[in-house]
C-alpha cells in the first residue's frame, strides 16, 4: 500500500500542455519520427507458415491445431530478433496462451523501456515533469494489440496472424520497415487457443458430410462459447484474466484490434466507424481514432481492389464488455472488423441474389456511401478472408506508424482529461460500502475493478461524509483517474436512447443495453457529490487482498451459525453436505442472536464441521460465528428445518448453450457439484433415483424438444428431449423431484406441465414491450416470506435488482389454481413502477407487478420458473443466491410434502 493523498496531486496539472503541442506538430505535417536502428531481422532460416503447415494459410478445407500454431510462433520468436514470444499463462484447458511482440531489433532488446513509456502516457501522475512528457511522446511508439479467433468458428485470423508474423519477421521492404521502426505489435494468434482445437477437430469429422463446416455439438470454449467476448469487464474466464493483466498492468496499448467474422451473405467485411448509439463515456479522441483507422482500412482495401467493404453499420459504439469495448474505456482506440464467413474452411458460392443487407445502417446490399463497392457474388474462400484481414492489420500498423506522435500524445491528453474531469466535476467518485453481513461481495466487485486497472482507495479508519459515518474498510473509487471512462461506465446507470424504427418497433442494440456493476452484483454504492477530502484516511490499494473470513469463537462453540446474507456460503453448505454434517436452516429469527436470522444456517460444532468451515471461511471471506453456552443447542434444535443441496442434474443440449456453460462455471466456482445430463440420460428415465433437482438452462423450448435436425450434424447429436424426455421429466417432478427452469426453458416447462399461469411478454411486438439486456427492479410479494418456498428468498433483500435479457414474466390464469389442485405462487415480482434501473425498457406497464420467479407444485414435486436469468454470463452475482437456493432442499425427499411446512414458532 502507498499513501494516496499527495502523490496523487503532485504531478496531475503541470503536464497538460504537451499533448496539444504534439497534436499541433502532427497536424502541421512536421515529421519528428526518428528512424529506428538498422534492422537486421536475424531471421535466417525462418520457415514460412506455408512450409510449416504444408499448405498456404487459408487454403480450402484446412484448419490448424493449436500445437502447430504455438510451435511456429515460438520458432519465429527464437530465430528472429524482431520478435519476442511470451506465454502469458495457461488456458482453461491448459494450453499455452501466447503473445508475439514484434518491433525492430533495438526496441525488442529494450521492451521494459517501451512498457514504462506506455505506463507514463496512460497515467501522467507517473511523469516527473513536462520535459519527460515531451520526450516520451517523441520517443515512444504506439503499441498495437491484435487479437485473433476469440470466436473459434471465425477461423481465418489465426492464419492471418501466422502470415503477418512471418512478413514482419522477414520483410525488408519500406512498408514493413516503417511498421517495425515506429510501432510495437502485440500479436495474440488466438484469444481462445482451446477453441482452435475444438473447432479444427470437429471440422475434420464433418468433411464430406451434409453438415460439413457446421453442426458443432459443444461450445468452442469450455464455459463461454461465443460469450468469450462478453466477459471483459467481469473477468470470469482465465483467458480474459490473462489478457486483461497484460492490457492494463503490463503493456497498456495505444490501439487494440480484435479480428472477427460475421454471417456469410452480407458485406464481405465491416470496418469501423461503428454505428449508433454512442456511449457518452468514450473519449472523443478514441472515437475519432476509430474513424481514422477504419477509413485507412477501407482506403487500403479499395486500393487493393477488395470489394464489399461496409462501414458505419451494425456494430454499435454503446456496449461495454467486449475485447474491443473495454479497452475503449481505457483510452485505447478499440477496433473491430468483421469478415463474411465461409463454412469453417469450406468455400461457399453466393449468387448475387443471395446477398442481403441486415439492419442498423445496412438495409440492403445496394450501393451506398457506407457501402461504396458492393461485391457481385461468386466464390468466397477462407483465403479471401485472410487477404482482407492482412490488409486491415497492416493498415492499422502503418497508420499508427505514420501518426505515431499524434497517437502517443493523445494517450497523454485523454488520461489528463479523465483526471481533470474527475477532479473538477461530479461525480467525484463512488463510495462502496461493504455489507457487514457479506463483506466478501463488495470486495469481489472492487477486485474486478482493480483488476481492470481502476485505482481503488480504502478507508483505514472511519470517516464522515454528508453527515454519514463510513466505517473502516469502506472503498472509495475516485473519479479523478486515467481510466475514469471505464469506472464511470461500470458504476453509473446506463440510459439507452429510445431508438425506434419507422414502424414504431425497437431497433435492437448490438448486445446488451445496461451493465451497472453494483446493480449486477447487489453491492451498495453511492456517487460522491463533493470532491474527495484529503483528510479522509484513504489508502490506495496496490495489491488487492480479499478480506479474510472470520471464524469467531469456534474453540468453545457448541453450534456454529452461518449468517444468511452471503453468496459464497453455498460453498460451505456443499462442503458440509459432503462431510456428512447435518445443516439446519432457521425458520424463525432468534431474539438473542442477530446472526440467527431467518434463513441462517446452523450446524453442531463437531470436529468434521470445524475442519470444513475454518479453511472455507478464510478462503471465501465468510463470516462464521460459534455460539457457546446453554442456549446454543436450541439454536440448532428449535425453529429449524433440515437443509442440504440436492443431487443436481444439469441439462446440456447438443445444440450448444452458452447459458449452460455459464451455469456450470457459476456452480463450479462456488463449490457446487452437479451431473451433466444429455438427452439420452433424461430419456433413460429413473431420474428420481439419481437426482433431487434437475436444472434446465436458458434454452428455447424448440431446442430442448427437437435439438438438431437430421443432416444438421452427426446423427449421434440429432434430436432433443422429445416426447419421451418430457414424459420422464414430468414423472420426475410428480414423484417428488424439483425442476428448475432458467429463463427461456420456462416456455418448455409451461408447455409440458400446463400450470395455471401464462407468460405475458413473448407475444408482444417490440413497439409494445422491449427490454434488451437491462437491469430491472423487483420486489418480494407480501406473503412470499411465509410460503413453504420462502427458502428461495434466503439472503435476498426485499427489493433486489434482476437482469432482464428479453426475458419472461408470468401471471396467474384468471381462474387461479388448476383442476388437479396444482398451485402456483410468485416468489418475486417485477416492481410496480420505475421498473428500469439501467439499460432500456419500452412498455413498462406490460411488466410492472408481473411475476419474475414462480414456484409450482406438481404432484409430489415442484417446478421453479425463473423468468429472468439469475446467473447471466456469470455476472449477476446479486441474484446468484436465488439460483443456489433453488438447488437446496428443506425436507427429506422421502417424506411427505407436509413436513416442508415450517414448524410453528415456539418462542
Ligand atoms: Zn466474432
TrEMBL record:
Residue ranges of every copy of the Peptidase M14 domain listed in the record: 62-415
Assigned GO CC terms: extracellular space
A family per Pfam: Peptidase_M14
InterPro entries per the UniProt record, alphabetical: Class_I_gatase-like (IPR029062), Peptidase_M14 (IPR000834)
Cofactor: Zn(2+)
Gene3D superfamilies in alphabetical order: Zn peptidases (3.40.630.10)
Signal peptide location: none
Any one of the GO BP annotations: proteolysis
Annotated keywords: Carboxypeptidase, Hydrolase, Metalloprotease, Protease, Zinc
Name recorded for this polypeptide: Peptidase M14 carboxypeptidase A
Molecular function via GO: metallocarboxypeptidase activity; zinc ion binding
Regions crossing the membrane: none
Family, per entry: Belongs to the peptidase M14 family.
Amino acid at each position: 500500500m502507498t499513501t494516496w493523498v499527495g502523490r496523487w496531486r503532485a504531478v496531475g496539472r503541470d503536464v497538460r500542455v504537451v499533448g496539444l503541442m504534439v497534436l499541433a506538430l502532427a497536424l502541421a505535417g512536421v515529421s519528428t519520427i526518428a528512424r529506428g536502428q538498422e534492422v537486421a531481422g536475424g531471421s535466417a532460416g525462418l520457415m514460412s507458415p506455408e512450409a510449416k503447415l504444408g499448405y498456404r494459410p487459408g487454403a480450402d478445407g484446412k484448419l490448424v491445431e493449436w500445437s502447430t500454431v504455438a510451435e511456429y510462433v515460438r520458432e519465429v520468436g527464437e530465430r528472429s530478433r524482431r520478435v519476442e514470444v511470451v506465454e502469458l499463462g495457461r488456458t482453461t484447458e491448459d494450453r499455452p496462451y501466447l503473445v508475439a511482440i514484434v518491433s525492430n531489433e533495438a526496441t525488442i532488446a529494450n521492451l521494459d523501456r517501451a512498457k514504462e513509456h506506455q505506463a507514463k502516457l496512460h497515467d501522467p501522475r507517473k511523469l516527473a515533469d513536462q520535459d519527460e512528457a515531451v520526450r516520451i511522446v517523441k520517443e515512444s511508439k504506439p503499441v498495437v494489440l491484435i487479437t485473433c479467433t476469440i470466436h473459434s468458428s471465425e477461423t481465418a485470423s489465426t492464419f492471418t496472424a501466422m502470415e503477418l508474423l512471418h512478413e514482419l519477421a522477414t520483410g525488408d521492404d519500406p512498408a514493413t520497415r516503417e511498421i517495425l521502426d515506429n510501432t510495437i505489435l502485440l500479436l495474440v494468434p488466438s484469444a481462445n487457443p482451446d477453441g482452435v482445437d475444438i473447432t479444427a477437430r470437429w471440422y475434420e469429422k464433418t468433411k464430406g458430410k451434409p453438415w460439413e463446416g457446421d453442426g458443432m455439438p459443444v461450445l468452442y470454449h469450455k464455459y463461454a462459447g461465443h460469450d468469450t467476448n462478453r466477459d471483459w469487464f467481469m473477468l470470469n474466464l482465465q483467458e480474459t484474466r490473462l489478457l486483461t493483466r497484460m492490457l492494463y498492468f503490463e503493456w497498456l496499448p495505444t490501439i487494440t484490434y480484435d479480428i472477427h467474422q460475421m454471417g456469410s451473405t452480407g458485406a464481405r467485411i465491416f470496418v469501423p466507424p461503428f454505428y449508433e448509439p454512442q456511449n457518452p463515456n468514450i473519449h472523443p479522441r478514441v472515437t475519432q481514432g476509430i474513424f481514422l483507422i477504419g477509413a485507412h482500412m477501407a482506403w487500403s482495401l479499395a486500393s487493393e481492389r477488395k470489394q464489399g467493404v461496409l462501414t458505419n453499420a451494425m456494430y454499435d459504439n454503446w456496449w461495454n464488455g467486449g475485447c474491443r469495448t473495454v479497452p475503449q474505456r481505457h483510452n485505447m482506440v478499440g477496433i473491430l472488423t468483421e469478415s463474411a464467413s465461409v463454412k469453417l474452411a469450406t468455400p461457399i458460392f453466393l449468387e448475387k441474389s443471395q446477398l442481403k443487407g441486415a439492419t442498423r445502417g445496412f438495409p440492403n446490399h445496394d450501393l451506398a456511401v457506407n457501402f461504396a463497392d458492393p461485391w457481385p457474388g461468386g466464390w468466397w474462400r477462407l483465403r479471401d478472408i485472410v487477404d482482407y484481414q492482412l490488409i486491415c492489420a497492416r493498415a492499422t500498423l502503418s497508420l499508427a506508424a505514420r501518426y505515431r506522435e499524434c497517437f502517443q500524445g493523445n494517450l497523454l491528453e485523454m488520461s489528463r482529461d479523465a483526471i481533470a474531469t474527475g477532479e473538477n466535476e461530479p461525480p467525484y467518485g463512488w463510495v462502496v460500502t461493504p455489507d457487514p453481513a457479506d463483506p466478501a461481495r463488495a470486495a469481489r466487485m472492487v477486485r474486478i475493478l482493480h483488476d481492470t486497472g481502476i485505482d481503488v482507495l480504502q478507508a483505514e479508519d472511519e470517516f464522515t461524509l454528508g453527515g454519514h459515518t463510513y466505517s473502516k474498510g469502506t472503498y472509495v473509487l475516485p473519479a479523478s483517474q486515467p481510466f475514469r471512462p471505464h469506472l464511470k461506465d461500470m458504476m453509473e446507470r446506463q440510459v439507452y436512447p429510445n431508438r425506434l424504427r419507422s414502424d414504431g418497433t425497437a431497433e435492437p442494440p448490438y448486445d446488451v443495453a445496461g451493465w451497472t456493476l453494483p446493480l449486477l452484483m447487489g453491492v451498495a454504492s453511492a456517487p460522491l457529490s463533493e470532491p474527495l477530502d484529503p483528510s479522509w484516511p484513504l489508502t490506495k490499494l496496490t495489491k488487492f487482498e480479499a478480506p479474510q473470513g472470520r471464524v469467531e469463537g469456534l474453540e468453545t462453540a457448541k453450534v456454529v451459525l452461518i449468517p444468511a446474507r452471503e453468496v459464497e456460503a453455498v460453498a460451505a453448505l456443499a462442503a458440509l453436505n459432503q462431510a456428512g454434517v447435518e445443516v439446519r436452516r432457521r425458520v424463525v429469527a432468534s431474539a438473542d442472536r442477530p446472526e440467527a436470522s431467518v434463513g441462517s444456517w446452523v450446524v453442531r460444532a463437531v470436529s468434521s464441521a470445524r475442519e470444513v468451515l475454518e479453511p472455507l471461511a478464510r478462503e471465501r471471506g465468510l463470516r462464521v460465528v460459534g455460539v457457546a453456552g446453554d442456549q446454543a443447542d436450541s439454536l440448532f434444535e428449535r425453529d429449524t428445518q433440515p437443509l442440504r443441496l440436492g443431487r443436481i442434474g444439469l441439462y446440456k443440449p447438443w445444440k450448444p448453450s452458452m447459458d449452460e456453460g455459464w451455469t456450470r462455471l457459476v456452480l463450479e466456482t462456488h463449490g457446487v457439484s452437479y451431473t451433466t445430463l444429455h438427452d439420452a440420460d433424461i430419456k433413460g428415465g429413473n431420474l428420481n433415483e439419481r437426482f433431487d433437482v434437475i436444472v434446465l438452462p436458458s434454452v428455447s423450448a424448440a431446442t430442448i424438444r427437437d435439438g438438431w435436425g437430421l443432416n444438421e450434424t452427426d446423427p449421434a447429436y440429432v434430436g432433443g428431449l422429445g416426447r419421451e424426455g418430457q414424459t420422464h421429466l414430468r414423472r420426475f417432478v410428480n414423484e417428488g423431484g424439483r425442476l428448475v427452469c432458467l429463463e427461456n426453458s420456462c416456455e418448455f416447462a409451461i408447455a409440458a406441465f400446463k400450470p395455471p399461469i401464462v407468460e405475458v411478454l413473448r407475444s408482444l411486438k417490440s413497439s409494445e414491450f422491449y427490454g434488451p439486456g437491462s437491469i430491472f427492479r423487483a420486489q418480494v410479494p407480501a406473503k412470499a416470506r411465509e410460503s413453504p418456498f420462502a427458502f428461495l428468498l434466503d439472503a435476498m433483500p426485499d427489493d433486489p435488482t434482476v437482469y432482464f435479457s428479453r426475458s419472461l414474466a408470468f401471471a396467474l390464469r384468471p381462474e387461479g389454481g388448476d383442476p388437479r389442485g396444482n398451485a402456483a405462487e410468485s416468489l418475486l415480482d417485477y416492481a410496480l413502477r420505475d421498473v428500469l434501473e439501467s439499460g432500456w425498457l419500452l412498455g413498462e406497464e406490460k411488466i410492472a407487478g408481473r411475476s419474475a420467479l414462480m414456484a409450482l407444485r406438481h404432484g409430489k414435486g415442484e417446478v421453479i420458473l425463473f423468468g429472468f436469468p439469475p446467473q447471466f454470463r456469470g455476472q449477476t452475482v446479486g441474484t446468484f443466491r436465488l439460483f443456489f437456493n433453488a438447488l437446496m432442499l428443506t425436507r427429506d425427499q422421502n417424506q411427505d410434502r407436509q413436513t416442508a411446512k415450517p414448524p410453528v414458532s415456539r418462542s
